[in-house]
Design goal:
By secondary structure, the chain is α/β, with parallel strands linked by helices. It folds into two domains: about 35-135, Copper amine oxidase-like, N-terminal domain (Copper Amine Oxidase, Chain A, domain 1), CATH 3.30.457; about 145-370, Zn-dependent exopeptidases (Aminopeptidase, 3-Layer(aba) Sandwich). Helix content is about 35%, strand content about 25%. A six-stranded mixed sheet has the order 12-9-13-16-14-15, with helices on both faces. Strand 3 and strand 4 (about 90-95) form a beta hairpin. Helix 7 (about 275-305) packs across helix 10.
Length: about 375
């Protein structure tokens, strides 16, 4: 079960002609991005593109996508977009003169405007974006460098406890034990698959670890340029309605806003950009987390869907997902308070099945993230 705090109750391979200042280089944050593609046609369906909107000094974003072979994602209500080609991303927003790369470096393009339905940017800015999306072929690609597995609760915090009468006997299930068992199994699978990556646990025994320490461990993982960390928190669910059962995966709501980039991390005089950069980065993390969440739910459904209902993916600002500055999901394996599901969760065979399903989802996510073509196909 999710732990509640007070609020819960509530390298970058730059284009050859782009040379960032030392301050900008020092301000780079480690990239943790992967993005789901949306066909260019989906953008066109949202934005009418009359020929009259084009002029010699501006480039239409659709034309830029076609020219570079990039996939395009567009959020009409927020007027935010992303161009994705291979492992490279360029995030843009109507009304701003900057774009944000997947390495969290701002590039000045000149004002991005929406005129008569067309989203355009100055030709010089379009050339900069194009050269960024079309790098030399031998430049490094992004990779997942670390996977942090977070078994919930532990030590003096047992999490949810399910007590049930089973025939003439009884079953008492503690969440902390179930999720540690499943997490250790998942860790073994991932460590064997990825000897070149850090596969970490926030705890590997019956130890109490605070919520703050869990996310601090994840946020402190050392990564190089173009390297990412993925955070997976594992829990078991509870309900006053003992009929409730099934698995689900949670991610941070898209509307939730955090301070991911501070004024100290941008060049002097660019402080006004910080809210825009934070919004763009938040959108990136949301897409990544949703993609991972969908993958986990689908894998669990294939593995145990005939035994446990698929409750889908859900949004909530749980402490660990809102404070982990990376793609993050929280997995509920099932309800310890449901007698039938508790018996499943008490089985090592069942927990191994769950671990293998989650492993396959993470493996797929990593494969797509690190693939040069993974998110450019429609």
């Amino acid at each position: 079960m999710r732990s509640l705090d007070g609020a819960d109750m509530a390298r970058v391979p730059y284009a050859s002609h782009y040379s960032p200042s030392p301050a900008a280089q020092a301000a780079r944050r480690r990239p943790r991005g992967v993005v789901a593609t949306v066909a260019v046609a989906a953008f066109a369906a949202c934005v009418v593109l009359p020929a009259s909107a084009q002029d010699a000094g501006a480039t239409n974003v659709l034309d830029l996508a076609v020219r570079t072979g990039a996939a395009l994602e567009w959020h009409p209500l927020r007027e935010l977009g992303v161009l994705v080609r291979g492992g490279r991303q360029v995030h843009f927003r109507v009304g701003t003169p900057w774009v944000l790369t997947e390495a969290h470096v701002p590039l000045y393009t000149g004002a991005i405007t929406r005129d008569g339905g067309a989203v355009t940017l100055p030709a010089a800015g379009a050339s900069l974006v194009s050269s960024y999306l079309l790098p030399e072929p031998d430049l490094p690609r992004r990779r997942v460098a670390a996977i942090m597995i977070d078994p919930g609760h532990g030590g003096r915090d047992p999490g949810t406890i399910g007590s049930h009468r089973i025939g003439e006997g009884s079953l008492t299930l503690q969440e902390k034990e179930v999720v540690l068992d499943a997490s250790l199994r998942l860790h073994r699978l991932l460590a064997a698959r990825y000897p070149d990556k850090q596969v970490l646990l926030t705890r590997d025994d019956d130890t109490y670890v605070s919520l703050g320490d869990r996310v601090s461990q994840a946020n402190a993982v050392a990564t190089g340029e173009h390297e990412a960390v993925v955070f997976v928190s594992v829990h078991a669910n509870a309900s006053l309605d003992r009929r409730s059962r099934g698995f689900e995966v949670w991610y941070l709501p898209p509307e939730f806003r955090r301070t991911l980039i501070t004024e100290d991390e941008v060049e002097e005089g660019s402080e006004a950009l910080v809210p825009i950069l934070n919004t763009m980065l938040e959108e990136e993390y949301t897409r990544e987390s949703v993609m991972l969440a969908r993958g986990v739910v689908a894998a669990l459904d294939r593995a145990v869907g005939d035994l446990s209902p698929n409750r889908g993916i859900r949004e909530e600002s749980w402490f660990v997902v809102r404070n982990a500055e990376m793609p993050a999901v929280l997995i509920e394996l099932g309800f310890a308070t449901n007698r039938d599901e508790a018996q499943l969760l008490a089985s090592g065979v069942y927990l191994q099945t769950l671990a293998e399903a989650i492993y396959s989802a993470i493996e797929s996510f990593v494969g797509m993230y690190e693939s040069s073509e993974g998110f450019t196909r429609t």
